[in-house]
TrEMBL record:
InterPro entries: Acyl_CoA_acyltransferase, Bact_Acetyltransf, GNAT_dom
PROSITE patterns xrefs: GNAT
Protein name: GNAT family N-acetyltransferase
Coiled coil: none
Species of origin: Sabulicella glaciei
Domain N-acetyltransferase residues, every copy: 7-149
Keyword Acyltransferase attributed: yes
Keyword Acyltransferase: yes
Alphabetic keyword roster: Acyltransferase, Transferase
Length: 149
């Protein structure tokens, strides 16, 4: 999907499960490779996608995106349910590239808005959302997927 300086952003495959299990475990979310393989398969058939950032080895980041209809817009809204970059890989633009790729995937799915739910215990994620063009409304950060003229 996206590539920059040897970093590729692409759709996750079952072959990524082992590396994703390590990445998730480093963030305190222990899942077996088998469970991840099954969940990646299920997500491929749902209204959403899983994108990974890969550079010479296992995934260094991932974003999980789901879209759903709302009453306040004719187009679905895409929600980032997981955004994770490995601790050694942070501050290198990988999170920005993942959000950009997620935005492209959401636009392709016909979505009109991208949102991220952020808890009060996540101040660095709040700052990241502001820096990447999201507007805050309560515990939710949103941004339009329409080109701003």
């Amino acid at each position: 999907m996206t590539s920059r300086h040897g970093l590729e952003i692409r759709t996750a495959t079952p072959g990524d499960a082992a590396g994703l299990a390590e990445l998730l475990e480093s963030a305190g979310h222990a899942l077996s490779e088998r469970d991840l393989t099954e969940r990646l398969g299920a997500l491929r058939h749902a209204s959403g996608t899983v994108l990974v950032a890969v550079q010479w080895g296992p995934p260094s980041g991932l974003v999980v995106l789901h879209w759903y209809p709302t009453l306040d817009d004719a187009r679905p809204t895409a929600q980032v349910t997981t955004l994770l970059v490995g601790s050694e890989e942070r501050r290198r633009g990988i999170g920005r590239l993942l959000i950009k790729a997620a935005s492209q995937a959401a636009r392709s799915a016909g979505c009109g808005r991208l949102e991220v739910l952020v808890g009060p215990e996540e101040p660095s994620l709040r700052g990241f959302c502001r820096a990447t063009g999201f507007s805050e409304a309560g515990g939710r950060f949103t941004r339009s997927l329409r080109k701003q003229g």
